Amino acid sequence: VLYSDERGEHIIQGELIETKSRNNLTQARIDKLTAIDFAALPLKDAIVWKQGTGARKLVVFADPNCGYCKKFERDLQSIKDVTVYTFLYPILGGDSPEKSKQIWCSKDNIKVWRDWMIKGTPIAESPACDTSALQRKLALGRKHRITGTPGLVYEDGKMQPGAVGADAVERQLVQSRAKVNGG
After folding, report:
1. What is the maximum alpha-carbon separation in the chain?
2. What pLDDT, in 10s, does the model give residues 55-79?
3. Are the C-beta atoms of 2 and 14 separated by less than 8 Å?
4. Model pTM score
5. 62 with 174: CB under 8 angstroms?
6. Dist. CA 74–CA 91, nearest whole Å
7. Three-state secondary-structure class, residue 30
8. Strand 82-88 relative to strand 159-161: parallel, antiparallel, unpaired?
9. Across 38-64, average pLDDT
10. Could you identify which of 8, 16, 139, 163 might form a hypothetical disulfide with 25, taking C-beta atoms 3.0 to 4.6 angstroms apart as the criterion?
11. 10 Å Cβ neighbour count for 174?
12. What's the DSSP call for residue 110?
């Protein structure tokens, strides 16, 4: 986000902070510009698991070879009342696409995914299946400029790149849920 005078003779690059409220107006604008319509996401193309009531929702774009994703997956175990939609997003190269196919085609892809990410259990060979969902998720990630993993999308559309701690995820889940419920 760049700011200029009305004639465009001067440009300011950086964050604009409202001093009274201490709100970062630049970040608020970026959040609005990069927001993703959660309701329009193809959740049928996700590996889905929930904890507790599953009332709060979170999409995670993750690569099976991403160390930060593995740590993040472990951190998610402490989050309560959440449904997690994992979009396999094999962008790190190497055998990431093959691992994603094996996970996606597994009879119990939730268990295989979580065992691999949390416990390091090797991924067993899976029968062939329709992997077009993987291509759709790659296209979706590119469309929304998700360039790293994990890439998080909260229920209110806020996008957050990179691994964050459980406390930060919890705070954002509360804020997102409040926005979705009109609060």
Report:
1. 62
2. 999 999 999 999 999 999 999 999 9
3. no
4. 0.85
5. no
6. 21
7. helix
8. unpaired
9. 95
10. 16
11. 12
12. H
Contact (CB, 8 A) for 136 and 104 = no
Residues present in the chain in total: 183
Nearest to 116 by CA among 90, 82, 146, 144: 90
Q: Which residues partner with 4 through β-bridges? A: 11
d(CA 89, CA 149) in angstroms, rounded, equals 8
**Amino acid in the structure at residue 157:** G
Taking CA atoms, 89 is separated from 47, 56, 132, in Å, by: 12, 22, 13
The DSSP code for 45 is G
Residues 6+ apart with CB under 8 A from 143: none
How far apart CA 128 and CA 95 sit, in angstroms, is 16
Give the pLDDT confidence of 102-142 residue by residue, as tens digits. Answer: 999 999 999 999 999 999 999 999 999 999 999 999 999 99
Joined tokens for residue 92: 């790190």
Q: Quick one: residue 19, left, alpha or beta (phi over 0 = left, psi -120 to 50 = alpha)?
A: alpha
Position 151 scores a pLDDT of 94
Distance, CA of 61 to CA of 49 (rounded, Å)? 14
Main-chain phi, psi angles of 52, to 5 degrees: 60, -135
